[in-house]
Amino acid sequence: MTMTGSPGGLPVSAHRAQDFDREAGVSIETEPRRRKPGELLFAYLMLALAMWLFWLAWGIPGARRPSAPGTLPMAVCAIMVLSALVFVVRTHLTAAPHRSDSVLQRVAPPGLVPFVGLAALYVLALDHAGFVLSSLVFLTVAISILDRRHPLRALVIAFGAVVLVYLLFRMVFQVLLPEGFVPERQWLAIAEDWLRGRNR
Amino acid sequence: MENISFFFMAWMDPSLMILTALGTFLGIYIGAIPGLSVTMAVSILISFTFRWDVNDALALMVGIFMGGVYGGARTAILLNIPGAPAALATALDGYPLAQKGQAGQAIGLSTVMSGIGGFVGIAVLAVAAPSLSEFALTFQPRDYLLVALLGILLVGSLSGDSLAKGVFAGCLGVVIGMVGLDPLTAQERFTLGYISMWSGISPIVAMIGLFGVAEVLRQLHYMGAARVRQDIGGLIPSLSDIRRHLSLSLQSAGIGSVIGALPGTGGDVAALMAYDHARRVTRNPEVPFGQGAKEGLIAPEAANNAAVGGAFVPMLTLGIPGDAVTAIIIGALFIHGLNPGPMLMVETPYIFWFIVGNLVLANIFLVIFGLTGIRLFVRIVQIPKGVLLPLILLLSVVGAYALSNSLADVWWVLAFGLFGYLLKLYGFQVGPIVLGIILSRLIDDNWRRMVISERDDLAAVLRGILSSPLSTTLALVVILLVLGQTPIWSRLRGALAARLRRS
Questions:
Q1: Which of A116, B15, B205, B235 is deepest in the core (most CB within 10 A)?
Q2: Is B361 helix (H, G, I), strand (E, B) or coil?
């Protein structure tokens, strides 16, 4: 998505804001808002979540006094349910999405599903293959998918990044990183001993 | 006065000074690069720095905060992409200025004005906080409860689509914060029977997921890179320019400090309100607003940096965050064993003066770094998203793991990330969730205290509220916020948008 100034002089970023974000958006809407695909479903899911949490809060044992451990949770969940009802109704009142907008397209732009899948695999691998190896693989694959240039470039960047992060985190932040079947610490220790041995 | 010595702590100690400088420098880039955010960075940093001394950690975070709020302006001006929500209003007049070839001037002016705004905010902090903290000692539990409620409502009313979604998010945060054993009765709450849930869900994990991973996923929608097309000239603004706009920038800084001091609201709201104020107050701008009016550039920039100092006021006096970043910093203080709240100023006053001194130092560095190094900046800011996003995910994973060396935390972060992404997609805000989590304990404690002291008699609680002018005022404000058909801020933003449409 390239950013060029629109002919009228109004910054285009304001238009961008309306598409995905309504966070702090000064959104400029030219037609009545339509629901995003999946928005109604999500609203109902949130209502269900609120009701489930309320049920959990209801189940907290203890007298029904204001100072009981379950009272505040129940009150908060009740407010959640009420507000969920409000936005479910509001979402119903909003126009249905364009026929052409598919849930999949809007919710998952190209790259999202592979990226999430890759991230999950990465975390799974962390325990078994250790930080260095898993990160190297993850970064290389992710960067080559997203950046779409030569995978070798991705590998080089990944390598540099992992080295930098590793040094930074071991030295500066003193953070322990998951070790897998690549016994980095043993290798480092062996390397240190060998260096010391050479100097004898 | 020994307080002065604490003020200068960051100035005398070379490592602290370096950390502040580093933080400010990094903050400028983090604030500028779309895809990175200050909330994301500070969340991840809390976990990394938890073995550090608290002063070192604070110096770094304060620097990033100051730099980040300003940094968003640069990409707003150069690329029309605000790097941070606080810079949204800056793009409106900053980008047209850049298109006219005045990018350098725009950046220089916004830097100086940010610096001025920052100083005003810090001055407000230094003056208001000590007096407010004395006043805060008279706060009853009900007052804390009401202020916390106010904060969540304010943030909620600025949210995505509606107050309902904002309240929902805030309540969700409070519930998440209540997961675990009840501190008073050791009763299991929301633990689903799992012992591993007894200690609750770490707020840091939630923050890294909601602010870090969710943002990465959201950025996948905006993969196209923008190129800086302009020729950037000299950055140092002329003295006459500064003098001409000084009054407006001071007014904007005032607005910014006050809004920053309101619990929950921060730089982004401050910037919008200051922009609106500038429009109303400037009679004959040499260039119309929206086409490169300098007034439209300096007002939001002065305001959003002033909001930084302002945000620390409630945070250090009441333990209630003035905005999202101070909410995260409260988390950091907890981790380092400090107790944000009115007792903070009493038990550990050095923290207050240290932060003030640090903020001033960071502000100075901001002006220095802001007026230099533009070429390096342009290079780095154009880093392809395809490289940036996986890196951020890596850092988030490491940040999650570093907390307690457990992969379970990493899975939680991913889960929060996915959930946060869906929330953002469908018009919810994640800010209220984090605020809710941070305030959850405070709300629970004060509710219990309030109710137990009246022996479970709710009518007596109500009488108590009405008997205190402070409590009554707070309660009225809360009720007004809820009853207002359209929440104040979104109406204001709607009006602002309408005016922009007409221009």
A1: B205
A2: helix
pLDDT in tens, B175-190: 999 999 888 888 889 9
d(C-alpha A139, C-alpha B278), whole Å = 46
Q: Does B442 touch chain A (CB under 8 A)?
A: no
- CA dist A71 and A75 (Å) reads 6
Model confidence over B401-431: pLDDT tens digits? Answer: 888 888 889 999 999 999 999 998 888 888 8
Q: Residue B324 is encoded by which pair of tokens?
A: 């999202």
Residues of B in contact with A107 (CB under 8 A): 422, 425
CA nearest to A44, candidates A81, A77, A76, A74: A81
Look at phi and psi of residue A174 and say left if phi exceeds 0, alpha if psi is from -120 to 50, else beta: left
Please list, residue by residue across B274-283, b when 16 or more beta carbons sit within 10 angstroms of its beta carbon and e when fewer do.
Answer: bbbbbbeebe
Contact A142 B390 (CB under 8 A): yes
pTM across the whole model: 0.82
Task: Flag if A73 and B189 touch (Cβ within 8 Å).
Answer: yes
**Closest approach of chain A CAs to the CA of B1, in angstroms?**
35
Q: For residue B219, what is the nearest residue in chain A, using CA coordinates?
A: A112
Q: Give phi and psi for B426, each to the nearest 5.
A: -100, 25
This model of the complex carries an ipTM of 0.80
Contact B267, B128 (CB under 8 A): no
C-alpha A18: how far from its chain's center? 21
* Three-state DSSP state, B470: helix
Contact A9/B395, CB-based, under 8 Å? no
